[in-house]
Write a structure and sequence with these properties.
Helices cover about 75% and strands about 0% of the residues. The protein has about 525 residues and is mainly alpha-helical. Helix 4 (about 75-80) runs antiparallel to helix 7 (about 125-160), helix 8 (about 170-180) packs across helix 15 (about 325-335) and helix 9 (about 180-200) packs antiparallel against helix 17 (about 380-405). The chain binds phenylalanine (PHE).
């Protein structure tokens, strides 16, 4: 070992950093508008169920993998993979055959693509699941930074007084012209990524942990200020009741699956971010409690974001199910309609909050790539950070340029259309679709199957119990029945249904099945209304 691995200075440091990763555009931007489109309170309820039965178990699973191996996702899978895996070989060879079949249909682009992945799986076995998660993380990092750049740009615009419109149409106009103006979009994207790189180049403790401890409390305070403002507006209660009273008639099966996918995204699961952060935890810490705290913080913030947004939206008479434009298009207009002026201030506060949330999430994505480069290629941290920064900035640039206008990079557009026959609104949309709908769930399925069936829940639970055995061993039946857990009965026959064994069931069965169903739905093979 060349250098000792850095560790978080305390559980709190880890929880705040991981909560920072989780709380991001997903919780504050996506969650409210998706809830708005799917029946408000009903969606919230389903979302909470998904978080509890899938999000929590998978998060514990990733953190356990990280802490056990003290490695980046690729190293983690490699360390725990068996030498030979029939499952991996089976999947690999099936992909090779699929690729040959595709050749017959003259789908050359896809044939080569699938052949490469099949080859990777045959060559590297389960380690390729780690590779998949690094790739997913990198791709998301690149376009997440473009949206992060918009949030930064909107802070500036708010304080300059440029967001002073009161109609939705004017707001939408302002947003598209901002987004499509490359003189803004590009510097903001690069500036956003630069802030993140500057944070993590200082290291885990002095960079990520220190800044999470500063930024996360600020985020909470800003959120509370906005909620108080929203709730004290006349007519705000309609918004609260929309958000909290469940309208099940508006919730569809599709909504349920959307909730599941969203829970995965907002908890930063399925791409090794939590494996990476978990690898900086020392073995004395209680990861059961940490997981619970991270999940609770993320869920509370998502709920609060709804409470900060909907009352104001209703009070000012805007449409609740506004879609992705909700925060960029409608909110500034909403803030400007608030009596008493100061719309710029409320908008400014909101976009600072959104930027903080986005920065701490982007940091975890960048750190994952950096951990891979330092662990696997033995690069220095500085070299790894700046290389990852440059690569992310470049790929993100393509997203930023393409969302303004595909024809800005017509060559890439043509290549993608000709080789893969995919037509999307922009490169940005393509990457977003591909990573959220394909890569994320696939690597989520791989992680839970790996821990549940290959590495084995027995070894995982052994790891979890370090530092948290009084949790892992809580006997659920005794607990629910109000009987004290009797240490004199501490034999395995008594302790069949402990929290840890319940977790094992979720990881082996519930999580992979639920994520597979979501995946099939998202890629359109399972059609639900
Ligand atoms: N959880 C982040 C959000 O809600 C997104 C993210 C996903 C960040 C995966 C890191 C890793 O915006």
């Amino acid at each position: 070992m060349i250098e000792e691995r850095e560790h978080w200075s305390s559980s709190l440091g880890f929880v705040l950093a991981a909560a920072g990763s989780a709380i991001g555009l997903g919780a504050i931007w996506k969650f409210p508008y998706i809830a708005g489109q799917n029946g408000g309170g009903a969606f919230l309820l389903i979302y909470l169920v998904c978080v509890a039965i899938i999000g929590m178990p998978v998060m514990l699973c990733e953190i356990t993998l990280g802490r056990r191996t003290q490695q980046n996702p690729v190293g983690a899978f490699r360390m725990l993979s068996p030498d030979k895996s029939h499952v991996a070989n089976f999947i690999g060879f099936s992909m090779v055959f699929t690729s040959v079949a595709l050749l017959c249909f003259q789908e050359y682009g896809w044939a080569v693509f699938i052949l490469i992945i099949g080859g990777l799986i045959i060559r590297y076995g389960w380690t390729s699941a780690g590779i998949l998660s690094i790739v997913t993380g990198f791709v998301i990092m690149s376009y997440y930074s473009v949206v992060g750049g918009w949030t930064l740009g909107y802070i500036i615009k708010a304080f300059q007084g440029d967001l002073n419109y009161v109609t939705e149409a004017a707001a939408a106009n302002c947003f598209t012209s901002f987004r499509d103006n490359l003189a803004w979009a590009i510097p903001m994207h690069i500036g956003f990524l630069l802030i993140c790189a500057l944070i993590i180049v200082r290291g885990v403790r002095n960079g990520i942990e220190k800044w999470s401890k500063i930024l996360m409390p600020i985020l909470f305070v800003l959120m509370v200020i906005l909620i108080l403002r929203g709730l004290t507006l006349p007519g705000a209660l309609k918004g609260v009741s929309f958000f909290l009273s469940p309208k099940f008639s508006e919730l569809s099966a599709k909504g349920v699956l959307t909730a599941m996918g969203l829970a995965f995204f907002t908890l930063s699961l399925g791409m090794g971010a939590m494996i990476t952060y978990g690898s900086y935890i020392s073995r004395e810490q209680n990861i059961f409690m940490s997981t619970l705290s991270i999940v609770l913080l993320d869920t509370v913030i998502a709920t609060l974001a709804g409470l900060a947004i909907f009352p104001a939206v209703f009070a000012m008479g805007f449409k609740e199910a506004a879609g992705p434009g909700l925060v960029f298009n409608i909110l500034p207009a909403v803030f400007n309609s608030i009596p008493g002026g100061l719309g710029w201030l409320w908008a400014g506060i909101f976009f600072i909050l959104l930027s903080i949330a986005a920065i701490t999430s982007e940091v975890s994505l960048l750190e994952m790539v950096v951990a891979f480069l330092t662990d696997e290629l033995k690069w220095s941290r500085v070299k790894a950070v700046w290389t990852a920064f440059a690569a992310g900035a470049l790929l993100g640039l393509l997203s930023a340029v393409s969302i303004a206008n595909w024809s800005n990079i017509e060559w890439l557009h043509q290549i993608l259309v000709k080789t893969f026959h995919i037509e999307q609104k922009s490169f940005f949309d393509m990457l977003d679709n591909f990573s959220s709908n394909w890569l994320l769930p696939l690597s989520g399925i791989a992680i839970s199957i790996f821990v549940g069936w290959i590495w084995s829940t027995r070894k995982a639970v052994e790891e979890i119990r370090h530092g948290s055995h009084n949790f892992a061993d809580v006997h659920l039946i005794s607990l629910l029945a109000g009987l004290k857990d009797d240490p004199s009965h501490n034999n395995s026959k008594y302790h069949v249904l402990t929290l840890a064994s319940l977790w094992g069931i979720f990881i082996r069965f519930i999580a992979p099945i639920a994520v597979t169903i979501t995946f099939l739905h998202e890629i359109g093979w399972l059609k639900l209304k």
